[in-house]
Write a structure and sequence with these properties.
alpha/beta, Rossmann fold, Dihydrodipicolinate Reductase, domain 2, globular, 11 helices, single chain, nucleotide binding, 26% strand, 6-stranded parallel sheet
Length: 395
């Protein structure tokens, strides 16, 4: 039997639990061994007792692990502000990397990761799960081949309520910097809904492992929660040779609306409506023909198995730092466009409870963003009384 592939997990609480579950359950019956876990606060892991029972060593730092062990693949689920340090440490020690999104907190650190990756001869994959799905990969290949013609305009909306507890779950949620001075820029666009902003840029990249070239950004940001960044964003990006990309996202609503998009091309329209479970991406072409690309949410652990394949078979990684830097550039552009998010007036704010957690939301905000989405406009362009425009930023 071949030697098992050695895997190190960095960060096993929060989203890191998904990696723990997938790798402990090993439903794909792959040949690997969890060689160690790095987490200074491992109590956040739901299966900590099982890790300990399997005698998987838990370390406080990656340096401690590498003094004793080696890893072929490191799966990183640490907070945004540690991505740079953890990816560099892994590469310096000869490991390949699968790191959760986003790539990094800043464009500068993203470029550092790209340079280090190129020097190391190892790969870095960034875990935007849609980008690893068969649905998105097939759609991107068709776009590159010109099957749909030139991209005209793309839009995505996602309204995901988040409670006050969500922002109190750690000391960096909604912060520009953490308490140690590390850049974070945690926001609705850089965490929970980052997938869907990245997805539009990724699909418009001229090569399978690249994203679009961002030319300009104009943003509007708002907040109902007591945070430094924003929990609501409406954003227009111009990319490549004049394609318009619009993005609407908020945590300040009462009812959940899953991601929905319309991508217009010269020779067809691609749509997706995540309000139904198992929803699929559908293209309708000018001649009336249609193509079903499938469900982009199908098997959200596929990125793990593809990363293992890439280590074992030296296969290419399509969603690496070069493909994900555009989203980091967009976050920078948003903060340049709007210095400080506009706080919603108290008279607009309501409270509701979901599973005993308080949600602060804005009455009518969902309708405003839906209207903006339908008309390809920002709230100020729609004439909304509370709206405040950000400046146009050239990138």
């Amino acid at each position: 039997m071949d030697k098992p592939l050695d895997i190190l997990l960095v960060g096993i609480g929060g989203y890191g639990n998904k990696y723990v579950n997938a790798l402990l359950d090993n439903k794909k019956e792959r040949n690997y061994k969890i060689r160690g876990v790095v987490d200074p606060y491992p109590q956040g892991c739901q299966r900590l007792a099982e890790l300990e029972k399997r005698e998987i060593q838990i370390y406080s730092t990656m340096d401690q692990f590498y003094l004793e062990e080696k890893a072929d693949l490191v799966c990183i689920s640490s907070p945004i502000q540690y991505h740079l340090k953890h990816i560099i440490t892994a590469l310096d020690n000869g490991s390949n990397v699968l790191c959760e999104k986003p790539l990094s907190a800043t464009v500068e650190s993203g470029n550092q990761i790209i340079n280090k990756k190129n020097q190391s001869g190892k790969f870095v994959a960034i875990g935007y799960q849609w980008s690893f799905s068969d649905a998105i990969q097939e759609l991107k290949r068709d776009i590159i081949k010109g099957v749909l013609g030139r991209a005209v305009r793309l839009k995505t909306i996602v309204l995901w309520p988040r409670s006050i507890d969500y922002y109190n779950r750690n000391n960096w949620a909604g912060k520009i910097k953490d308490n140690k001075g590390n850049w974070v820029f945690d926001s609705v666009a850089n965490n929970a809904t980052a997938h869907f902003l990245h997805n539009m840029y990724y699909l418009l990249g001229s090569q399978i492992n690249q994203s679009a070239t961002l030319k300009s950004i104009q943003a509007e940001t708002y907040k109902v929660n007591d945070i430094e960044t924003f929990d609501t964003v409406a954003l227009r990006t111009m990319v490549n040779d004049g394609t318009e990309v619009l993005f609407y996202a908020t945590h300040a609503v009462k009812e959940r609306v899953n991601p929905r998009f319309v991508f217009e091309f010269e020779q067809g329209v691609v749509t997706y409506d995540g309000s139904e479970e198992g929803a699929e991406i559908i293209a309708e072409f000018e001649d009336g023909s249609m193509k079903n690309y499938g469900d982009p949410f199908k098997d959200d652990t596929k990125k793990i198995w593809l990363a293992i394949d890439a280590v074992e078979n030296k296969e290419s990684i399509y969603c690496g730092p070069e493909a994900t830097l555009a989203q980091v550039e967009a976050i920078k552009g948003i903060h340049q466009s709007v210095g400080e998010a506009t706080r919603f007036a108290e008279k607009l704010i309501r409270s509701a409870y979901n599973n005993n957690e308080e949600i602060r939301y804005v009455e009518g905000l969902d309708g405003v963003l839906e209207d903006c989405y339908d008309k390809y406009l920002l709230p100020t362009e729609l004439g909304i009384s509370w709206a405040k425009s950000g400046k146009l930023v050239k990138l």
